[in-house]
Amino acid sequence: MYKILEAKTLAENIYEMKIFAPWVAKKCLPGQFVILRVDEKGERIPLTISDYDRNLNSVSIVFQVVGASTLRLSKLNVGDSVYDFVGPLGNPSEIISNFSEFKNKNIIFIAGGVGSAPVYPQVKWLSNNGLKPDVIIGARTKDLLILTEETRAICNNLYIATDDGSFGFNGRVTDMLTSLVNSGKKYDLCVAIGPVIMMKFVSLLTKTLNIPTIVSMNPIMVDGTGMCGACRVTVGSEVKFACVDGPEFDGHLVDFDEAIKRQTLYKTFEGRAYLKEKEGDTHHGGCGFCGGEND
Q: Which of 107, 76, 74, 78 is nearest to 93 (CA)?
């Protein structure tokens, strides 16, 4: 059991929790994720690590209520525990793993919605190691912005954009980036994390601007080990699985349209059966969820 040390509301239906998880806290790095279960029979919920403290043996997560499992999680209080907390899973951020290649680069992070959570630990790590990137945080409206002041304290410049103009720049994150580039800003790398549709349009824009781009894919996951095939993504001409090959990929090579379609199809039994038939041997199986273990 993993005790909740802190719990707070960041915005409507968006929550942050600090979990006592010594083994995860000891090994994790920004960019990685965990899979937790609220109780013994609970759904496996993949969540990106939003912060960690090796001295306190704690790992922080940020999540949005989107279904029954995350609703149950949101009702837990300090002192309660989650049943499972498995990690760190996935690969650390490429910028951190290969820091020597990026330490002299001019980097911009673009966070959409809850994507501010996985952006924060990466920017924090870079700041602690002498590199302060620019950051754009976007949301539909002011009330959905999270971690803005925490990010402002560790980055070079923070730019906030809201679709409805209720706070900061009036427009989407792509509009904000375009405005910055038009004003003379030059970037060697963009890291975009947020909804798939946002990462798609950021990548389309940065491709025209000749800015290499890393995206963090967080599709539906079941086992987190590459067995079930739920998190399959096509990158260039290769089939990858976000849980073991990612979650970071070259945004200019990701087939976002396929990723969006798979997210929709994987939610139904008929959709999963269709994907299994269509993808054949590359679909994977063994999770007990899609039926692939019976092949």
A: 107
Assign residue 116 the CATH number of its domain: 3.40.50.80
What pairs with residue 118 in β-bridges?
none
Q: Give the span between the Cα atoms of 53 and 295, in whole angstroms.
A: 43
The pTM of the full predicted model, rounded to 2 decimals, is 0.84
Give the total number of structural domains in the chain: 3
Question: What is the residue range of 9's domain?
Answer: 2-89
> pLDDT digit of tens for each residue in the chain (295 aa)?
899 999 999 998 999 999 999 999 999 999 999 989 898 888 888 888 999 999 999 999 999 988 888 899 999 999 999 999 988 988 899 999 999 999 899 999 999 988 999 999 999 999 999 999 999 999 999 999 999 999 999 999 999 999 999 999 999 999 999 999 999 999 999 999 999 899 999 999 999 999 999 998 875 666 655 566 667 778 898 888 777 787 889 999 988 888 888 766 544 444 444 445 445 555 554 344 444 444 3
Residue that terminates a domain, selected from 216, 243, 266:
216
